[in-house]
Amino acid sequence: MSLRRIGFSLWYGNRDKKRLLESMREIGFDYVEISLDYPWPYEQDFQDIVKKAYDLGFKIGFHGPWRDLRLASPINEVAEASRKVVKKVIENISHFEPEYFNLHLISEEITFDGKVVEKIVKRANETIRFLEDLSNEFSVVITLENNPHGHFAYPTFFAQVSLGSLEFCLDVGHAVIAYYNAGETSYTPLGVISDWINIIGKDKIYVVHLHDVIRKNESYVNHYFFGLGILDLKEISKFICEKTNVQYILFETFRKNRDNKAKPLKENEVLNVVRKNCR
User: Fold this and answer.
1) Per the confidence metrics, is the pTM higher than 0.85?
2) Beta strands in 51-181 (DSSP E)
3) pLDDT digits (tens, 9 = 90+) for 164-178
4) Whole-angstrom Cα distance, residue 224 to residue 220?
5) b vs e for 12-28, b when ≥16 Cβ sit within 10 Å of the residue's Cβ?
6) Does residue 255 surpass a pLDDT of 80?
């Protein structure tokens, strides 16, 4: 078995979640990243799903809430409210002893003004120190993930903050569409990944999210099943596993392009590709 754990994503919106867990275990996945989209983790069925995953032998990571959270907001009240939610959620899930807890640094404020950028960076650093304290208090590894757009969508922005003891989650699809939608299409996907590794450091990249990217209506869209888009799974997985010390590799695929005649790779096929390239 690979030293790296290979997983799949599960969230509140999945149909027949227990059957999905069973089928992914039969295929051979090592872990599941459970996305804490509301109303999870506040409802009983969440507890039942986590118990089912453990009973099947899965390791578990969590993707923290993000839709209504703005941890990098320059508005103090917004950032504080977001931190309170994160602390409450970590309190609720820490007894599961997860492999990691993943979060996004987000601010939706317009950043053409340097003063606004300074305040966002200041807030992000404050939030990172807050998260370090939570990581120590609850003995949970916390990772920060790059965004598909906005201030923390590019590696140079993460160079403005200090991750400290936090780890990093490199979402390859987010990284590629951030570059390409900004017009940086001269970069190859491996070139984009190299930029991130050079800034973050190979030892800091703890989790990698993988999904395909397609071009749609003059822009690039991610979270597609592999085999439908522009990313070469074999090439990317081999490169990442050679160039970083990643511990967890997650397939975060939700979309199938109904207009595309190509057939997506099946779960066992993507698992076999990564297993072969990440021994």
Assistant:
1) yes
2) 59-63, 101-104, 142-145, 167-171
3) 999 999 999 999 999
4) 11
5) beeeebeeebeebbeee
6) no
